[in-house]
Amino acid sequence: MLKKIIISIIVLFVLGWGSLTGAKAYLKSLLPDKAHFQAIKQAQTSDLSYLNEGTPEYRGKILAVVTSADTMWNGKATGYEHTELARAYWVFSANGFDVDIASPKGGKPPVVLDGDDMGEYDYAFLNDPAIQNKVENSIPLAEINPDEYEAVYYVGGKGTMYDFADNQDIKRITKALYQSNKVVSAVCHGPVALLNVQLDNGKMLLAEKKISAFTNQEELFLIPDAQEVFPFLLEDKLIEQGAQFQAGVDYLEQVSRDGNVITGQNPWSVWTMAEEVVLALGYEPKAREKTPEERSVELLLTYEKLGLAAAKAQITSESHSYQQMLLVMHSFLALMQFELGKGMDILSLAQAVKASQQ
């Protein structure tokens, strides 16, 4: 985060913002004030009507699986992505499913918290003692009976690259659910769990399946030496086992469904992916107000497909809240790749959002 901000400030300075201080002040002006961030950190389950109103009767159980790996090969800390567990958990529970949380080793799994991406649902999950007790006492995968579940969801996080692909219990659970016509789902790095799963007919589960996951381009942008850090690049390995890889725009929503196999590209795909799981289980997902982050993703997708004017028209025609941090971060991504026009366009979108919400 700090590196991105520094590089973007320098680029803005070069483009004529007068001074580094001026460039920094401009970027800061596009973001909400501290009170906004302090407020969402206090979010409670009881504050969110989606979680408390109109929940259907019990519909069965869904298994969420997180990594037990806490370090990467370069020694840096890792784990599962908090937002990828929290958002799917809320969708499943709000739609009548109990959610069990399991990990290869059981017990308290390592977690990655990215405050730049977190909203009120993510903090409400952290602030719920009953849920955190469940997380901290995750069930060892060896103890899981797949017959008890309607679906499995493999949560992403870089740690999965080290302990999912060759885990015999993951293969056992995935195969059992898939061959029972139940739902298998995963997001971001989570689809690594679908590797090496051979069905009773001798075919690989991934063969000819439409699959989305964290792309090589996304991986290498964040970790230039990813080919040395990880045992393999996930996109390459999925394709090697026969997957029809479906890549969307970097760091924006992309979900693929192939029968009862449902996968998402990155953390910004979780809400839609989880609701696709509910649909695949035969239920219409409970109505909810989209989060400011989702609205920002939609806005960025409009920009990618239709251009700046259409995106600005979307802001003025809809009275929605947006996550300004996400827009600013995407402008950083463009500026760091020296896509200067794109970076400035997205900054102008952030400025338009700021103006519309004042």
Q: How would you portray this structure in words?
A:
There is one protein chain. The protein has 358 residues and is α/β, with parallel strands linked by helices. It folds into 2 domains: 2-30 and 290-356, no CATH class; 44-280, 3-Layer(aba) Sandwich (Rossmann fold), CATH 3.40.50.880. Helices cover 46% and strands 11% of the residues. It is built from 17 helices and 11 strands. The chain has helices at residues 2-14, 20-29, 34-41, 49-52, 82-94, 120-126, 129-136, 160-163, 168-179, 216-222, 226-229, 234-240, 270-280, 292-306, 308-317, 324-336, 340-356, and strands at 60-65, 80-81, 97-103, 111-112, 139-140, 151-154, 183-187, 210-211, 244-245, 255-258, 261-264. Strands 5-3-1-6-7-11-10 form a 7-stranded mixed β-sheet. A hairpin with a 2-residue loop joins strand 10 (255-258) and strand 11. Helix 1 packs across helix 2 (20-29), helix 15 packs parallel to helix 17 (340-356) and helix 16 packs antiparallel against helix 17. The protein is globular and about 60 Å long. The two termini are 26 Å apart. The relative contact order is 0.12. Residues 1-6 have low confidence and may be disordered.
Radius of gyration: 20 Å
What is the CATH class designation of the largest domain? Answer: Alpha Beta
End-to-end gap: 26 Å
How many strands in all? 11
Q: pLDDT under 50 segments (min length 5)? A: 1-6
Distinctive features:
single chain; 358 residues; alpha/beta; Rossmann fold; 2 domains; two-stranded parallel sheet; globular
Q: Can you give me a brief rundown of this structure?
A:
The chain is an alpha/beta fold and 358 residues long. It has 17 helices and 11 strands.
